[in-house]
Amino acid sequence: MIPGRAATxxxxxxxxxxxxxxxxxxxxxxxxxxxxxxxxxxxxAPPGDSRELTIGSxxxxxxxxxxxxYALLLERAGYAADILSVTxxxxxxxxxxxxxxxxxxxxxxxxxxxxxxxxxxxxATPVGSPDLAATMKALRALAAPRGLTVLxxxxxxxxxxxxxxxxxxxxxxxxxLSDLGAAKLPVRLAAGDxxxxxxxxxxxxxxTYGIDIVAVDPKGVGTTPAKQAVQNGQDQxxxxxxxxxxxDRFGLVLLADDKKLQNADYVVPVVNRARAGSDRVRDxxxxxxxxxTTADLASMNQQVDSWRRLPEDVARNYLESKKLIPKE
Length: 328
Prior knowledge:
Organism: Streptomyces rhizosphaericola
Mean pLDDT: 88
Pfam families: OpuAC
Low-confidence stretches: 1-23, 25-38
Signal peptide: 1-32
Strand content: 15-25%
Shape: globular
Radius of gyration: 21 Å
Protein name: ABC transporter substrate-binding protein
Keywords: Signal
Distance between the termini: 29 Å
Oligomer: single chain
């Protein structure tokens, strides 16, 4: 993880000092169970419209990019926007509830399951699913009592995905995971240890697609060693994500999840209702919904991770190219 660089004053996208993180950590820990009884009225209060907003980033490239996109769009709508990088959801979600953070980019199914576990225990039946509408309904029901509003998802989704060598795909005529199952090929899968048991991974590939997973090679999710193992033929497939920007570098291509094994992890803005629940905020961030795609996210990730461009520069250039903000 590369710490965020402070933006220039002309961009007004300042990251708060590290000292602020210490205060945030202490306060967020104190409010980890959501709004207290004496503050429950704030949950049902009219949506607020603070003119100074803090956007939270989870500290990895894609989250930094989304936070920058949000900040620029909000500034365009007349808000002052700061960005705060907090790498731990256990810290930034309570801070979102308390109003120390006003907006965060999240992933629908993952956040729904996280809130569900927080409310109902770690063994609670997951509510995230491949069905976006059902996932959003569950997510909003869990978020509302905590004073959070989940805005509409757009087109971009960051899901688990599976890639094979392009040469392997050509040789066997593979474009989808169904194609791989029909080919009846033995497959060694490079992934994390948990893939052996997770329903979206080896068990799901066998059950949903009939893929013959003969072994799981524990090299991690989308790591360089995992991709190299597929590149050199040691393994036949790797678990990665739909916005992985480095597949071309290893000669890999994604196989389409045509039977929707993976959950609906669409990008969604989540806001503190009392501070950022207004139609102005909704409209400003909603401008991304018709333009931002999964491919766009992958491209921007590549510009930061491979080309070493700054997230704020990549985000600004993207919004300018889509005519969502004027050119400087």
